[in-house]
Amino acid sequence: MQSLTVLSSLSMPELSKVGSISWTTLPALTQLTFTKKVTEASSVLITDTNLSSLDGINLVTAKTFNINNNRYLNIVDVALGNVSEALSVEFNGKSLNCSFPNLMWATNITIREAGSASFPKLSSVNNSIAFIQNNFDSISFPELEKVGQSFAFNGNTKLTNVTANNLVSVGGTFQFANNTAFQNINGFHSLKTVGGSIDWSGTFTK
């Protein structure tokens, strides 16, 4: 669906499986009714809506999951176990609670301008993971062991704590840049290998 400027609600109470979801420029859309919950879709793109939540979309797996420019969206809580191409949550509500409680692996992850982010079961990222201009002060990755390419934190001005004590290797660049409140890089006790550059800028005390 694209450019349906007066569509305010979407009701498909029996829908549980779909090939893809692509909603672009639906500025009046505020309500979803997916009573059975959509658990299967290969790709999801939701951009420029008036939604405050994605209630009823609870995918288990996806190739791509892209949620962007939904300025009233304040929660993304999805049961994804893996994302084989790219997971991206960007430019939504400034206090967005971004939670992926079951996500174990993904190929790429980008989180931008979120109020919080949670990845309690994430163990592996095949390519890159980036956190850019977010509004949270702390994030932890209790199960993360490997990042295949870059691991980046850039422009998160409130960030003071990052913990990934089981992380063993980063295949590419390991970056902390322009995180003005971040001073202690002491949450990576198991890190043994960085295959690319270590790009840390700031004032660090530990």
TrEMBL record:
<keyword id="KW-0732">Signal</keyword>
<dbReference type="InterPro" id="IPR051648">
    <property type="entry name" value="CWI-Assembly_Regulator"/>
</dbReference>
<dbReference type="GO" id="GO:0031505">
    <property type="term" value="P:fungal-type cell wall organization"/>
</dbReference>
<dbReference type="GO" id="GO:0009277">
    <property type="term" value="C:fungal-type cell wall"/>
</dbReference>
<keyword id="KW-0325">Glycoprotein</keyword>
<keyword id="KW-0964">Secreted</keyword>
<dbReference type="InterPro" id="IPR036941">
    <property type="entry name" value="Rcpt_L-dom_sf"/>
</dbReference>
<dbReference type="GO" id="GO:0005886">
    <property type="term" value="C:plasma membrane"/>
</dbReference>
<dbReference type="GO" id="GO:0009986">
    <property type="term" value="C:cell surface"/>
</dbReference>
<protein>
    <submittedName>
        <fullName>Uncharacterized protein</fullName>
    </submittedName>
</protein>
<keyword id="KW-0134">Cell wall</keyword>
